[in-house]
Amino acid sequence: MEPGLASRGALPAAPPLPRWLTRHSLSPCLKIRNHIYSMPSPTYKVPSVTKCQASLATNYIRETSEVVDLDWENLGFGLVETDFMYVAKCGPDGNFSKGEVLPFGPIAVSPSAGVLNYGQGLFEGLKAYRKTDGSILLFRPEENATRMITGAERMCMPAPTVEQFVDAVKQTVLANKRWVPPTGKGSLYIRPLLMGSGAVLGLAPAPEYTFMIFVSPVGNYFKEGLSPINLIVEDKFHRASPGGTGGVKTIGNYASVLKAQKIAKSKGYSDVLYLDAVHDKYLEEVSSCNIFVVKDNVISTPAIKGTILPGITRKSIIEVAQSKGFKVEERLVSVDELLNADEVFCTGTAVVVSPVGSITYLGKRKWKIHF
């Protein structure tokens, strides 16, 4: 009997299996079927964008349910090549070709592809977890789908609908289900990509787009594991500026942080915390995750105003904290407040929830939280 796949939930308190989940199960089946199983509608308005009418793959059948023999105790967060990937094309008519689950491997792309020449591309990140009964859970995939639609509008790209996105994710996960780590040993990281794969020379949107998904089993993102991480506040470089693309998950946002991150890691820090580009005093986010500050039992986090990625784990933390009676503020948070906080933590799909043990600011001021 094929393990089912649930697709809705809230926040995981700690790796590897989310505790705060509201679930609905996918009926056990060997053949992936072309529809969504009771997918809830997003709770916030989705902007009107061009959406490709994808015909999703329905031809994948796998009858094995074994789990790959890996060193699950020392998995880390690096690429492990799995069996299959999902690929669908979208042409000038705005319609995707029939999506396919294909063997994982290189793809052919023109040297003049829009994604290579002008950075016209987006990606998402989400996870699947294995329960003790063998069934598999997805963490809020409809939220990733909605965020990709928003990002595609900003980058002048067509986007798959929420239903198409989630169905493609389910197909990819079930095709690679033997790579989902055992309960308590990690998760299956899912990487959807949307890119301008068509050839262009002049600056313009690409004439063709590719939507694809690959997966990899992962462990902890930071080398510290679940121990507190050490951050340095960046005082020279900025991640984003008003009017830019900091609020969407475009590929260019991440290449630009590599230099500051490399310098920080060479000095022994886990990652970099960025300040706003206007006043150089308000918190934005860490290279790969959002940040929260706790003072007197009030949880504060930088507001989403176009320069900060609207993290799905961030949103989940806010919802769960409010449901538990905590006061949560989304507002400008100064670096001085950070240095006087009772507690600081980061959230993200890759990092899940990571406590912060120390903050270094201006190279001379170090603040530590004692756990």
Structural descriptors:
aminotransferase, nine-stranded mixed β-sheet, D-amino Acid Aminotransferase, Chain A, domain 2, eight-stranded mixed β-sheet, 371 residues, EC 2.6.1.42, L-isoleucine-2-oxoglutarate transaminase activity, alpha+beta, 17% helix, 19 strands, amino-acid biosynthesis, Aminotransferase-like, single chain
Could you please describe the fold and organization of this structure?
Its EC number is 2.6.1.42. With 371 residues, this protein is α+β, with helices and mostly antiparallel strands. The protein has 2 domains: 5-218, 2-Layer Sandwich (D-amino Acid Aminotransferase, Chain A, domain 1), CATH 3.30.470.10; 229-368, D-amino Acid Aminotransferase, subunit A, domain 2 (D-amino Acid Aminotransferase, Chain A, domain 2, Alpha-Beta Barrel). It has 7 helices and 19 strands. Strands 11, 12, 13, 14, 15, 16, 17, 18 and 19 form a 9-stranded mixed sheet that branches. Strands 1, 3, 4, 5, 6, 7, 9 and 10 form an 8-stranded mixed sheet that branches. Strand 14 and strand 15 (298-302) form a beta hairpin. Helix 2 packs across helix 3. The chain starts with a strand and ends with a strand.
